From TrEMBL:
Intracellular or extracellular location(s): Cell membrane
UniProt keyword list: Cell membrane, Membrane, Transmembrane, Transmembrane helix, Transport
Record's protein name: Transport permease protein
Domain of life: Bacteria
Family: Belongs to the ABC-2 integral membrane protein family.
Domain (ABC transmembrane type-2): residue spans on this chain: 18-243
InterPro entries the record matches: ABC-2_transporter_component, ABC2_TM, ABC2_TM_bact-type, ABC_2_transport
Matches recorded under Pfam families: ABC2_membrane
Length: 245
């Protein structure tokens, strides 16, 4: 790993993002719009919105980062950019860490905007501190980014990359406890949910709805989310191909 090369890659990706206004809108505006839409769906009912909104504050950034990064990495491969880059001293891990750093900055801005809207004008009032809410929201967005980079290695086209969203993300949404409590699911489904990273992302937000401190359970959720993101990046470095066959 070369820190200088990693930072150069991050700067290049950020420059590309800056020039892609549609992607910037998807990353920064869509989660805010979805949070506002959710608030209006419940007609401003603070009790219901307070229960569901906090969980989705972690889910929306996860989904958008997954979609954008999976397509962005695939575009690098199909355009031949990745093949040219890997003929230089740039290592695969340098490339993925550069992407992670660049999109990590985007995740921080995304989570900050969505959290500011939810905790401010929309009146979301979690028991946990704003710092903890923002930390977990950013971690969830970074997890979505890391998983998006990982699955992009298995797609042959941008259309296939988008197909990974329902195939890879929606099952996690169904089993993470967002729709139904996990302890009320069939035993097999509950067991499957324990190995899905989004389960811990949602559970962490649930913890923040109930406690104002960094409890042991919340710390475990946060560590699992961060660990899953790191593992996805490591696996991505091992599966990354120079170009699409």
């Amino acid at each position: 790993m070369n820190a200088r090369v990693t930072l150069a890659t991050a700067r290049r990706v950020l420059a590309q993002l800056h020039g892609d206004h549609r992607t910037v809108a998807l990353l920064l505006i869509v989660p805010c719009v979805l949070m506002a839409l959710l608030y209006w769906v419940f007609d401003g009912d603070e009790r219901v919105f307070g229960r569901v909104g906090l969980m989705l504050l972690g889910v929306f950034p996860f989904v958008t980062m997954f979609l954008v990064t999976s397509v962005a990495m695939l575009r690098e491969r199909t355009s031949g950019t990745l093949e040219r880059l890997l003929t230089t001293p740039l290592a695969k891990l340098d490339l993925l860490l550069g992407y992670a750093l660049a999109f990590g900055v985007a995740a921080l801005v995304q989570a900050a905007l969505a959290s500011a809207l939810a905790l401010g004008p929309l009146g979301l009032d979690p028991a946990g501190s704003v710092t903890l809410v923002l930390t977990l929201a950013v971690a969830n967005a970074v997890l979505g980014m890391a998983l998006g980079l990982l699955v992009s290695a298995f797609a042959q086209s941008e259309f296939q990359a988008v197909q990974f969203l329902p195939a890879f993300v929606l099952p996690q949404l169904l089993l993470c406890g967002l729709i139904a409590p996990r302890d009320q699911m069939a035993g097999a489904l509950e067991a499957i949910s324990t190995v899905l990273p989004m389960t811990y992302a949602v559970d962490g937000m649930n913890q923040l709805a109930r406690t104002s401190e960094l409890s042991g359970d919340l710390l475990v959720d946060l560590l699992v989310v961060v660990g899953a993101a790191a593992a996805a990046l490591a696996l991505g470095a091992g599966t990354l191909r120079r170009r699409t066959a």
